[in-house]
Amino acid sequence: MAAFPLSPQPFAVVPFWNRLRTRLVLNFVFLTVGSIIIVTGITLTQLRDQSTRQVFSQLESVAELKQSQINEWLRTARTVTNLIESNLTHQTSIRPLLEKKHLSDSAKEEINTSLLQMTTEQVDQVGEERRTVDDVFVYDVDGQIVASSDDTLTNRVVTLQPYFQPSLAGDYLQSPYYDVSTGNLTMVITKSIDNSTGKLIGIMAAHLNMELLSEVTAQRSGLGETGETYFVSIENNYLLTPSRFAGYEMTRAYQSQGINEALKGQDGEGIYSNYQTPSVPVLGVYRWVPELNAGLMAEISEAEAQILFTKTSTILIGVTILIALVAASLGLVAANRLSQPIKQLTDIASHVAQGGLSERATMSQNDEIGVLAHAFNLMTDRLTYNIKELDTRLEELNATNEALRTATAKAREAARVKGEFLANVSHELRTPLNAIIGFSDMLLMGMSGELNQKQRHKMERLKENGVRLLTLINNILDITRIESRRVEIVNKEFAPRALAERLSAQMSVLAERNHLDFKTQIDPRLPELLTGDEQRLEQIIVNLLSNAIKFTEKGSVTLDFDMEADLSGWRIVVTDTGMGIPPHALNVIFEEFRQVDGSSSRAYKGSGLGLAITRNLVRMMDGFIAVESELGQGSKFIVTFPLIAKQTPVGELLEKVEA
Amino acid sequence: MSLNWDKITEWQVLLVDDEPDNIEVVAESLEYYGMSVRTANNGQQGLDLLADWLPDIIMLDLSMPVMDGWATLRHLKSDPRTQAIPVLALSAHAIIGDSERAVNAGFDGYLTKPVNVPTLLQDFRSALKERNISKI
Fold first, then answer.
1. Mean pLDDT of the A243-248 span
2. Which residues contact A167 (CB under 8 A, 6 or more apart)?
3. What domains lie within chain A, and their CATH numbers?
């Protein structure tokens, strides 16, 4: 029996990445951490956008506030200037002074004093005494200062100052600039002074208090640690207000995206590099302030602006990692709990597959794996039982086979012994019969003296019975040999015509003795040479002809050799005009010890073995025998043999026939 | 070897058979036709007889004790003295295949027992003739 094919390692080691545990952990981690990452990502993005927007809008309002403060400051400055000018032109003799009329020193002094007084008595919006204007001075159309709140300014010439030419055309606001004579950053408001005919005779100008500008930007409420607002002038990109950075210089050209955009006259917002330390990005809102000819920037470092976002995201990422770790551990534990019993079950299955049927799964879980283990155990039980059952059956089968073999051998031996016995008995029976027949012959021939009629008759009966008995014994011997396959068929070429002629000569004597016509016909299509066992064919034909002659009282017996209609075989046909065979007997006449009935057995002596022998011989030669008969009309025995190769092809035969 | 069929009465025949009755029937029949016959009960005895005598024809029963027909034939055909003498097989029954076996073994003819006394000479002749024909 072939062994069940098992490789030395029937269960391959599952690669790490395919392992149930790995996959479970990965799935678990992916599902938990993945979703958290997605949620966190969306949250952080939203948070970042929102906080950026918030910072921008905060910066926007700061910038708005600063601008409105600047505007307020400038309006105040204008109001103050107008007030001083009004007082100046109404209460003092400034016009005569400007019209070059000689005034006494005391008159001039009075003007200066009045100016100083008006300058110092300024009151700001909330009522506090606070200078919006540093000093006030009056110059004539030639640019010479004729009066001033500050004595040091008197008699100076302002023709080179940037506001001089514009001031001749009308009231003017000079945006911040560095005064070459003092080196100070300053702003100037001018006011025209006309004479009574409306002709410009002089200009009153006021230096604005620039500290107020710095104060505006210095108020950093709502700007956190790094927030600042500052102005950069379009003149040389100089700072107009102090920077938050230490080591800044007012008169240095500063650049940044915000500064450049603002100085181009554009308002906007953005995230860009800081003007002082470009590596630090800032969120900035910038706008163009035409009154100051400068850009206003409100900025805060990105790091500070996003501090909430950064903190939140740090916390969220930390939480995510924590959750991932927890999920991985939980997944690992779960996977172990799942895969461990499976691995155990696999090991047991492996054992069972290799024949260890006594192994059983010992898991006692309540889950599906427990059920699987239980089912596996049941299966193994069943398998064990079935294998035992099969073994038992196999043993039984082997025993039966052995018994059958013994029985067959016995039967064969019995058959052989029977055959031998029959052969021996036949031989022993024949020997005395031969003697009886021989002696009968000698007596009949008169070797021991002539016999009288009665003696001769008796002797003939004696011989005839002896011959009959001998034939019977011979037939028994023949059938025994045929049945035990001790007869060989030797196929050789032979000439069917010669065979037919010889048998016809032999049998016609017998037919004539019974007063029968004997005819032989040979189909012209029959090949000259056929292949077969001539001796057996002869025996077959003699048997059939003997029977035909024996069972025909009058008429004829015919021997035909012919071809089958389709030329695939040739036939021996023996026809007689005898008593025929009743239909019920047609099937049994070829069986051993059968004749049509008892009466015929008596009337026509024979053993009933002739046809059985004939049929056996025909079958051994791959042919078949058939009989057609009509009671009282005669019988026809047809033996058909296939044409064996090497015989002349039928095509040639037909040509021969046609020729 | 040539047998003179015209002088059949002068033939000398060796008949070997273990059956006394058979010997009696065959020998007496042959003698009846004028031949002289010497008999032996088995092949060995037959060979012994040939020590100082050569017959015209030898008839051997196939199944005999001591030395059967087949063995005797081999001796006869291997001895140059007896090689040329025609040998006829005698068999109890033309068992299917026996006659052919006999001819193949080297017998010159084959007679079936019981010999038919009335036609013995014809049978004798045709057995040998058939053999001769098949030899051609």
1. 84
2. A190, A192, A203, A205
3. 92-214 (3.30.450.20), 220-305 (3.30.450.20), 488-658 (3.30.565.10)
More confident residue, A293 or A131: A293
ipTM above 0.90, yes or no: no
Q: Are A472 and B55 in contact (CB under 8 A)?
A: no
Locate tokens 């068929």: which residue? A489
Which stretches of A10-165 are assigned E, i.e. beta strand?
133-140, 145-148
Q: H or E stretch including A82? A: helix A20-91
Determine the Cα–Cα distance for residues A532 and A490; give it in Å rounded to an integer: 7
Which tokens belong to A453? 């009629």
User: Is residue B29 a part of any domain in this protein?
Assistant: yes
CATH code where residue B43 lies = 3.40.50.2300
DSSP state at residue B1: -
Q: Report residue A569 as tokens.
A: 């075989």
Interface membership of B91 toward A (CB under 8 Å): no
Would you call B92 and A536 a contact, using CB atoms and an 8 Å cutoff? no
- CA A315, distance to chain mean position in Å, is 41
A434·B114 Cβ contact <8 A: yes
Q: Is residue B1 part of a domain?
A: no
The answer to whether A482 contacts chain B (CB < 8 Å) is yes
pLDDT (0 to 100) of residue A402: 93
Give the model's confidence band at A205: pLDDT under 50 very low, under 70 low, under 90 confident, else very high: very high
* CA-wise closest residue to A484 among B93, B101, B97: B97
pLDDT at position A1 over 50 = no
- Asked if the structure places residue B2 within a domain, the reply is no
Quote the pLDDT of residue A602.
40
Q: Are A439 and B113 an interchain contact pair (Cβ–Cβ within 8 Å)?
A: no
Q: How far is A512 from chain B (nearest CA, A)?
A: 19
Contact A223, A256 (CB under 8 A): no
Contact B25 A447 (CB under 8 A): no
Question: Could you list the residue range(s) of the whole structural domain that residue B116 is in?
Answer: 7-135
Report the run of H or E that residue B110 belongs to, with start and end: strand B109-112
E strands, A209-293, in order: 228-233, 268-273, 281-289
Per CB-CB distance under 8 Å, the chain A contacts of B17 are none
Query: Does B104 contact chain A (CB < 8 Å)?
Result: no
Contact B92 A431 (CB under 8 A): yes
pLDDT at A598: 47
Identify which of A247, A331, A245 has the alpha carbon closest to the alpha carbon of residue A22: A331
CB spacing of B29 vs A427 below 8 angstroms: no
| DSSP-based three-state secondary structure for A627 | strand
Residue-wise pLDDT for A26-85, tens only, equals 887 788 778 888 888 888 888 888 888 988 998 899 889 989 988 888 888 888 888 888
Nearest to B25 among A426, A430, A435 (CB): A435
B121 touches chain A (CB under 8 A): no
The residues near A168 (Cβ < 8 Å, ≥ 6 apart) are A141, A200, A203
Question: A441 — contact with chain B (CB < 8 Å)?
Answer: yes
Rg of chain A, C-alpha, whole Å = 73
**Concatenated DSSP letters of A160-202:** TSTTHHHHHHS-EEEEEEE-TTT--EEEEEEEEEE-TTS-EEE
- Overall domain count for chain B: 1
- Test B96 with A432 for CB contact under 8 angstroms: no
Average pLDDT rounded to a whole number, residues A5-24: 67
If you measure CA to CA, which chain A residue comes closest to B100?
A535
Of A6-10, A91-95, A598-602, the range with the lowest mean pLDDT is A598-602
Mean pLDDT of B32-58: 90
B19 in reach of chain A (CB within 8 A): yes
- Sorting pLDDT into bands at 50, 70 and 90, what band is A287? very high
- Please indicate whether, in this complex, the C-beta atoms of B100 and A490 are within 8 angstroms of each other: yes
